[in-house]
Amino acid sequence: MSTVRSTGWTGWVVFAGVILMVAGIFSVVQALVALIGPDAYYVLAGGSLFLFDVAGWGWWNLIIGALLIVVALALFAGQTWARMVAIVLAVLSAVGQLLLIAAQPWWSLIIIAIDVLIIYALIVHGRELRDDGVPGRPAQASQSARRK
């Protein structure tokens, strides 16, 4: 029986799950503030005025936040589908931050860097988590690898 060796990057996969969970909680909080608070958000950046529809932004953040929390919990459980969805959400997050670079350059660059770390950890080292999501133990081989 073949097993996948666990490396130090397993901790980074757990890190990715924690960051997704925190980002989901922050998104839900931002959504509630946007939905309960004022109707417009103004940002002056480089002589340009950005105007956001706060209600639409709030609902978007609420949906994304809930998805991030669910995916993070599934990632902790070692679900393969959660890795794929987390990668897609991290890519969407990075692209969304590209749109906000003019308004919030440092924050956008930090989030893009974290998204890249999440994507790397999940793509390259995601299989190192066992089905029970315990880091540091060897992952179980897939059914196809066992048949060989």
Description of the molecule:
The protein is mainly alpha-helical. It has one domain. Helices cover 65% and strands 8% of the residues. It contains 5 helices and 2 strands; from the N terminus they run αββαααα. It has helices at 10-36, 54-76, 80-99, 105-125, 143-147; strands at 40-45, 48-53. The protein has a two-stranded antiparallel sheet. β1 and β2 (48-53) form a beta hairpin. α1 (10-36) packs antiparallel against α2 and α2 packs antiparallel against α3 (80-99). It is elongated, with a radius of gyration of 18 Å. 24% of the residues are buried. Residues 131-148 have low confidence and may be disordered.
The number of distinct structural domains comes to 1
Spell out the helices and strands N to C: HEEHHHH
The overall average pLDDT, rounded, is 76
SS content category: mainly alpha
Strand composition percent: 5-15%
How many E-type strands?
2
Give the low-pLDDT segments.
131-148
Q: What's the story with the biggest beta sheet?
A: 2 strands, antiparallel
> Helix proportion of residues, in percent?
55-70%
**Rg from C-alpha positions?**
18 Å
Oligomer: single chain
Number of helical segments? 5
Walk across the major sheet and give the strand order: 1-2
Labels describing this entry:
mainly alpha; two-stranded antiparallel ribbon; 5 helices; 65% helix
